UniProtKB/TrEMBL annotation:
MF-aspect GO terms: aspartate kinase activity; ATP binding
Name recorded for this polypeptide: Aspartokinase
EC number(s) on file: 2.7.2.4
Keyword Amino-acid biosynthesis belongs to the record: yes
Highest taxon in the source lineage: Bacteria
Sorted UniProt keywords: Amino-acid biosynthesis, ATP-binding, Kinase, Nucleotide-binding, Transferase
Pathways involved: Amino-acid biosynthesis; L-lysine biosynthesis via DAP pathway; (S)-tetrahydrodipicolinate from L-aspartate: step 1/4; Amino-acid biosynthesis; L-methionine biosynthesis via de novo pathway; L-homoserine from L-aspartate: step 1/3; Amino-acid biosynthesis; L-threonine biosynthesis; L-threonine from L-aspartate: step 1/5
């Protein structure tokens, strides 16, 4: 490993590169806060480009016309590049051509190969965005795919930490980082040993920043967001939020796990392992304090309120009133893992076992198909999962008032319940 260095890793997500003005603002932040000194800048796809690419792939795969949507995506990127004074055609032609070829090929992809093809297509959001940002900053554009090495778990590549660490250290020696221009690279994407592109899971660019910091021994990671820092709730859902000036890795990892979408859940562990602080700062007020996530002790925190939408509650009943046994649970857990459904909450009773899951219709259908023979299965969709971390009476009353709780669970620190959306 590099000695802990002066290296900073900055991560800019979709909102902070959503248009030319946003990229100019990014340029000011890099100049005024990131330099001088070695700097790696991780960039996500611009605005909602990843969603647009998902929709394009769906159209192409199902044989529907997509020229209008592809044209919109291309001209959006070209217009931003031009507005920034960059030679748009020269900068983007090759990538846009590759994207088009991938979309043409999508029509012939078998359903079983779709997840693999998804990664080959959806990764273009980050490739295009970094081309523009790197050119604007006059930085070194780095293709991270040969360096961020994963297995072939498409759409959620699992990292090969030792291969990634070796590759990153070889590609980015500290002396070069110190003397050279900043490096701009893609969040969210990686590559297999065989040279195919993978993605790390939606919203995975924060994780990329943590991977780079861990492997290169950075002094800090800063994720630049459209909020003042890590708040006790999503301000888009709850109007009266408060900011945590500092908070421990452990509290943050739990908030992210329960669904606080401001930080990808995988981000914290690599940073905690190497004691690298994570700063959450506002790109709208870059000099403001933000939140420092590090190894710290603090008193009781303001309760954190977290909502996860699009949940479903699935209950498995043994046939003929048998008790739910450990053998039954082994089967259920096994199939959940195979179809890659994550349990958000679970509860057992004599003859029934219930799990709250993200509602992913294709995966749920696979789950039902594999377990229907053995269990009677009921499920409800259109649900929400609420978590109150460090709850008190007031926060508990506030969130549960007027709601029918379909499932609830409480530990000393955490209260969770499932209810209907709305
Ligand atoms: N606890 C929280 N604190 C701050 N923001 C939160 C929290 N929970 C959810 N959010 C949401 O996270 C958003 C920022 O994260 P995200 O949209 O992933 O940014 P980006 O894609 O630009 O990296 C905020 O606009 C806010 O709505
Ligand atoms: N662009 C990817 C990865 C990502 O992390 O984006 P953002 O940083 O904007 O959340 C996505 O939308 O999933």
């Amino acid at each position: 490993m590099h000695e802990l260095s002066q290296l900073k890793v900055y991560k800019f997500g979709g909102a902070s590169v959503k248009d030319a003005a946003a990229i100019r603002n990014l340029g000011r932040i890099v100049a005024e806060h990131g330099r001088p000194g070695p700097l790696v800048v991780v960039v996500s796809a611009m605005g909602k480009t990843t969603n647009a690419l998902e929709a394009l792939l769906q159209l192409a795969h199902t044989g529907q016309p997509y020229a209008t949507e592809l044209g919109a995506l291309s001209s959006f990127h070209a217009a931003v590049a031009t507005e920034l004074g960059l030679p748009a055609a020269e900068l983007l032609r090759e990538l846009l051509g590759e994207l088009e070829s991938r979309l043409v090929a999508a029509a012939n992809v078998a359903p079983s190969g779709l997840d693999q093809h998804y990664d080959q297509v959806v990764s273009f959001g980050e490739l295009l965005a970094t081309r523009i940002v790197a050119a604007f900053l006059r930085a070194r554009w780095l293709d991270c795919r040969p360096l961020i090495r994963t297995d072939e778990t498409w759409r959620e590549g699992r990292l090969d930490w030792s291969a990634t660490e070796a590759a990153l250290q070889a590609a980015l020696p500290l002396a070069e980082l110190t003397q050279g221009p900043p490096v701009v690279t893609q969040g969210f994407i990686g590559g297999t040993a065989g040279g195919l592109t993978t993605t790390l899971g939606r919203e995975g660019s924060d994780f990329t920043a943590a991977i780079l910091a861990y492997c290169l021994g950075a002094e800090s990671v800063t994720i630049w967001k459209d909020v003042a820092g890590l708040l006790n709730a999503d301000p888009k859902i709850f109007p009266d939020t408060v900011r945590y000036p500092e908070i421990s890795y452990q509290e943050t990892i739990e908030m992210a796990y329960y669904g606080a979408s401001v930080i990808h859940p995988k981000t914290i562990k690599p940073l905690a392992v190497r004691g690298i602080p994570l700063l959450v700062k506002s790109f709208l007020a870059p000099t403001a304090e933000g939140t420092r996530i590090h190894d710290c002790r603090h008193g009781l925190l303001v309760p954190a309120l977290i909502r996860k939408t699009d949940q479903c509650l699935v209950s498995f009943e043994s046939k003929e009133l048998d008790f739910i046994s450990e053998e039954n649970l082994e089967v259920i857990f096994g199939v959940l893992a195979q179809v890659r459904l994550k349990i958000r909450l679970m509860q057992n009773s004599a003859i029934s076992f219930s799990v709250c899951l993200d509602f992913l219709p294709d995966r749920l259908e696979q789950l039902l198909a594999r377990l229907r023979g053995q269990f009677t299965i009921h499920y409800n969709t259109g649900l929400e999962l609420y978590t109150i971390k460090n709850y008190d009476t007031a926060s508990l009353q506030r969130l549960t008032a007027g709601r029918e709780l379909l499932l609830e669970q409480r530990t000393r620190q955490t209260f969770q319940f499932v209810c209907r959306a709305g």
